[in-house]
Specification:
The protein has 4 helices and no strands. By secondary structure, it is mainly alpha-helical.
Length: about 160
């Protein structure tokens, strides 16, 4: 049990660290878009492409914070031994929606950049990654929902 508490505590710390890292990224992103570091320029895109990454990035920042808040609440529930709860299912639904929103923004940015500049690069991979994360969270949500149903049935039998 102690190992589980340490794992949840470490994960909770990392989630809270991500609040700070996301805020730092929000502040640093315009500076990164202006910086040229050898061949690695705007994530290997031209300067014009990089300029268009700033808009989708700022559009998904609120979704990122929503997902972090939900993760924070789920971890707080785990610390209180609230595991198979409809509250956690709702929080996982919100995380799924945030990931799908980020994937949609990434997909639109990919299409815009591909149409305007005939270039398909990093944005497509990011959008696919967000969509995959939404899928993973949805699967976890479905597992927890089924576990809640089984738990409720067992509680009625006893």
């Amino acid at each position: 049990m102690k190992q589980h508490d340490k794992s949840v505590g470490l994960t909770h710390f990392v989630v809270r660290l991500c609040y700070v890292l996301l805020a730092a990224a929000v502040a640093a992103f315009p500076l990164l878009m202006r910086a040229q570091q050898g061949d690695f320029y705007y994530f290997s895109m031209t300067a014009v492409h990089g300029r268009y990454l700033i808009y989708p990035f700022y559009m998904v920042v609120p979704a990122g914070y929503v997902a972090l808040v939900c993760l924070d609440k789920i971890l707080a529930n785990l610390k209180k031994d609230i595991v198979f709860s409809n509250k956690n299912v709702k929080l996982l639904n919100i995380i799924t929606a945030a990931c799908l929103f980020a994937a949609a923004v990434g997909a639109v940015a990919f299409v815009v950049i591909a149409v305007i500049y005939q270039s398909i690069e990093t944005v497509a991979l990011l959008a696919m990654g967000e969509a995959f994360m939404a899928l993973v969270v949805r699967v976890v949500r479905n597992v927890i929902k089924k576990a809640i149903e089984i738990k409720e049935e067992n509680d009625l039998v006893v």
